Amino acid sequence: MYQAIQELNKEKGYVITKLCALAGVARSAYYKWLKWMPSARELEVHALAKEVKLRYDKRKGILGYRQMRTQLNRKLKKNYNKKRYYRIMHALGLQAVIRKKRPSYVKASEHHVAENIMNRNFDAHSPNSKWCTDVTELKYGNGRKAYLSAIIDVYDNSIVSWILSHSNNNKLVMDTLKEAYVKNPGVTPLLHSDRGFQYTSHEYNRLHVKYGFLKSMSRVSRCLDNQPIERFWGTYKSESYYLKKYDTYEDVLKEVSEYIRYYNNYRYTECLEGLSPNEYRRSV
Questions:
Q1: What's the CATH superfamily of 110-282?
Q2: What is the 3-state secondary structure (H, E, C) of 138-190?
Q3: C-alpha dihedral over 220, 223, 229, 235, to 10 degrees?
Q4: Can you give the residue ranges of every domain in the chain?
Q5: What is the mean pLDDT of residues 4-11?
Q6: CB 25 within 8 A of CB 1
Q7: Lowest mean pLDDT among 4-13, 38-47, 59-68, 75-84
Q8: Alpha-carbon distance 280 to 284, whole Å?
Q9: Of 16, 123, 130, 214, most Cβ neighbours within 10 A?
Q10: 76-84 average pLDDT score
Q11: How far is residue 156 from each of residues 152, 231, 261, 280, measured CA to CA in Å?
């Protein structure tokens, strides 16, 4: 209000007395405001507010007042309490981006959870004796997601089968398993997975009975129990997926197909005597 009176007086030449009367404020109050100088504390708060806004924008809105306090106190070598940061962020209308809650899954029936029979013993002396399987997420476009399911043979680290899908559901995993048996009918490997909802489902158990493979599952929160397929995800993403951006699902599908073809046939490694996975398999 006082700022408006000052600007109208300077720009338009309106009389201060009339402007104050129009605004419903005392002329003395206006002149008091005009002579007011911010205190050292007010200047300090103003400077801190500027730092808060800069840090909030730099971190793309992920900082709440607690993290803001930790980061700025360290930068400024100050010890401002979290209440001060809370008040400043509230006054500026700044709020941390809400993190998405993890989806809650119904605990799988104990009838379909298997023991960790693999037990990190990843030595295999023949093809199709030990398989590992998992699903990984691949992003494309404007935050959209595709899901890649694969089965790897521990013997030669070849990708036995893979399926890419728009949805991370039972069908994705079952189709991957069915594809593996189309290519390798009659085999009965030890098949290791995590305890995801697809692998503890009734549908997966029915395929276990149909095909006769032996189930093994990782312990809770032990990703190293499924190391062969986890290692493949890391290799694939660092050598291919992370190197470019994908606008469409079809772009991701093409890239996955090309990489797995390369990986199985032309990616030579010392642990396979300088051969690719498929070359090593054929050399037996």
A1: Ribonuclease H-like superfamily/Ribonuclease H (3.30.420.10)
A2: EEECCCEEEEEEEEEECCCCCEEEEEEECCCCHHHHHHHHHHHHHHCCCCCCE
A3: 160
A4: 2-92, 110-282
A5: 76
A6: yes
A7: 4-13
A8: 7
A9: 130
A10: 92
A11: 9, 13, 15, 7
217: exposed, middle or buried (Cβ count in 10 Å: 0-12, 13-18, 19+):
buried
Dist. CA 149–CA 163, nearest whole Å: 5
Distance between CA atoms of 147 and 138, rounded to whole angstroms?
Answer: 6
What is the dihedral angle through the alpha carbons of 87, 88, 93, 96, rounded to the nearest 10 degrees? Answer: -90
DSSP 8-state class, residue 134: E
- Judged by DSSP in three states, 219 sits in coil
The single-letter code of the amino acid at 239 is: E
Q: Whose structure tokens read 């998992």?
A: 134
Give one word for 94, left, alpha or beta, with left for phi > 0 and alpha for psi -120 to 50: beta
The pLDDT of residue 230 is 93
Phi, psi of 24 (to 5 degrees): 80, 30
Q: How many helices (H) and strands (E) does the chain have?
A: 11, 5
pTM greater than 0.85 (yes/no) = no
How many Cβ atoms from other residues are within 10 Å of residue 90's Cβ? 11
What phi-psi label fits residue 128: left (phi over 0), alpha (psi between -120 and 50 degrees) or beta? left
**250 pLDDT tier (thresholds 50, 70, 90):** very high
